Amino acid sequence: MAPSPRSKRTPARPALKSASTAEHAKHHARTRRAHARETAEDYVEAVAELIEESGRARVVDLARRLGVSHVSVVRTVARLQRDGLVETEPYRSIGLTADGAALAEKVRSRHEAVVRFLVALGVDAATARADAEGIEHHVSEATLAAFERFVAGLGAQPHKKAPRRRA
C-alpha cells in the first residue's frame, strides 16, 4: 500500500525572526528619505529643463511634466524651498538656487549616462529614457563610471587571439 501524501511530513520551517518595531520604523524612515531624495532630484531636473525650454517653470508646467497634481507640486516645491533647492514667490515662476542648479546638473548627467549605456546595450532610445528615470537615482558613482567606460569602448577588455595552429 502506497503511503498517503499526509504521511510524508516535511520538517517545519524555522520561523524567521521578526524585526523589532524600532527596526521596522528605521527601515521605513530610510526608504521615505530615499523617495524624498528621488522626488527632489526629479523636480529640480524638471525645473531646469523647463527654464531651459521656455525661460520659466510654473506649477502647472511641473504638474504636466511630472504627471502629478497641482497640489502635489505646491507641497513638494514648498519642501524644496525649505531645503534650499528652489526659490519661489507667489504668482511667479519657480527658480533654482545654486544648490538646486548643481543638483539638477548632477541628475541630468547621471540620467544621460544611463541612457547612453542602455542604448549601447541595444535598448531603443524611448525605452532607455523611460528606464533611466528610475535607475539614475539608485546607481552608484562607480557603476556610472563603468557605464561611461563601456560606452567609450573601454569597458570590455580585448580578448587575446589564440595563436593559429598549422596543420
What's the short version?
This protein is mainly alpha-helical. Helices cover about 60% and strands about 0% of the residues.
Overview of this protein structure:
This protein is mostly helical and 167 residues long. It has a single domain (29-151), classed as Arc Repressor Mutant, subunit A (Orthogonal Bundle), CATH 1.10.10. Helices cover 60% and strands 2% of the residues. The chain has 6 helices and 2 strands. Strands 1-2 form a two-stranded antiparallel sheet. α1 packs across α2, α1 (21-54) packs across α4 and α2 crosses α3 (70-82). The radius of gyration is 25 Å and the shape is globular.
Helix content: 55-70%
What is the CATH architecture annotation? Answer: Orthogonal Bundle
Secondary-structure element sequence? HHHEEHHH
Just give the CATH class: Mainly Alpha
Query: What's the β-strand tally?
Result: 2
How many helical stretches?
6
CATH homologous superfamily annotation? Winged helix-like DNA-binding domain superfamily/Winged helix DNA-binding domain
Strand content: under 5%
- In terms of structural class, how would the helical and strand content be classed? mainly alpha
What is the 3D form?
Answer: globular
Radius of gyration: 25 Å
